[in-house]
Write the structure tokens for this entry.
Amino acid sequence: MPTVATTSFTVGDVVETSFRPDRPIKVTAVMYEAVVRLRSALIVAAQRRSTLTYEEASAAIDCAFVPAGLGRPLDLLAEDCVRRGEPSLAALIVQKRSGEVGSAFIGNADAERERCYRHWR
């Protein structure tokens, strides 16, 4: 029987992230589905020791959020990883031109990316 992907929160929750407690996130059905799908796509990327661009991440969720609008879903995904005791999968989403995470990423993206690769190998 296939495993159903889930998150550590549910639709309707208001989530205070550990890294941006002043910006709680209301979990809508669209956001929940986007985070579940992003998580799955990023675990595959981690297993391949690769990254996704913001455009590829948006495509992975059928453009439910445009590339420039992925900030809140990525914050929620990062918090989900914290709650699971995992490295942040958000470190695997990079800008197409630079290959770097967005400016809002908190922490050492290179080190976090390596932790992702080790965790999901």
